[in-house]
Amino acid sequence: RKENNNIFVDDLKDGEKRTIPNPVCTFEEAFAHYPGIMENIVRVGFKKPTPIQSQAWPIVLKGTDLIGIAQTGTGKTLSYLLPGFIHMDQQPVKRDKRDGPGMLVLTPTRELALQIETECNKYSYKGFKSICIYGGGDRKAQIKVVTSGVDIVIATPGRLNDLQMNELINLRSITYLVLDEADRMLDMGFEPQIMKIILDIRPDRQTLMTSATWPTGVRRLAKSYLKDPMMVYVGTLDL
Ligand code: ADP
Ligand code: MG
After folding, report:
1. How far is the CA of 40 from the centre of ligand 1 (A)?
2. Which domain of life is it from (predicted)?
3. Closest residue (by CA) to atom 24 of ligand 1?
């Protein structure tokens, strides 16, 4: 375990010891090579990365799976969105948006899905097209957008599983998967849908998980769906 100013990192890979990257103190340290991303951050006017961002970015940019535990309002969305954009841009195999999305964010509620999509559009990068898929939303309209081609899907598990079962969306093109607010998704009973969704996603994907807490159910999810993750948590956590 490594500690930097109340940011803790655990390496959950057994055996071989990996080097935990140092946290970045500035946006430049993480994104200097990606001017499009820097421009967006400068435009929004943020001063410095939040603790979870400063430690998550260098880990995720290396392609390592990540569990990020921090309270609500600590900037977890950008901790996975910005490296996600870069991942999408650097995919070795070219994907066409009509084949299916490259990035999927699963989140518990419609409100969160819409908020994440707003962030996604605010920082939009390389013209990636995003869509929000949630229960109660216009199903026909969602299907139409998926068919016309999409890069990033932000979804609640129920509706996405519905589209998947009816073969209205292809999940096999996804290489970057985020389980956002995993504790709340479990509390809402979404585990069966999450399981079915992930069955269709390629095993060599990169997977990230965020949560405000670290109960047994979330640990079980992490064990099932993440591969040798590093875990970053901010503040105190009784482990
Ligand atoms: P969480 O997912 O951890 O609950 P969010 O990602 O929704 O938190 O972020 C909460 C708020 O903080 C958002 O309004 C977001 O725009 C803002 N924010 C994110 N990163 C930074 C930063 N580096 N500096 C200042 N504000 C930020
Ligand atoms: Mg969040």
Report:
1. 14
2. Eukaryota
3. 46
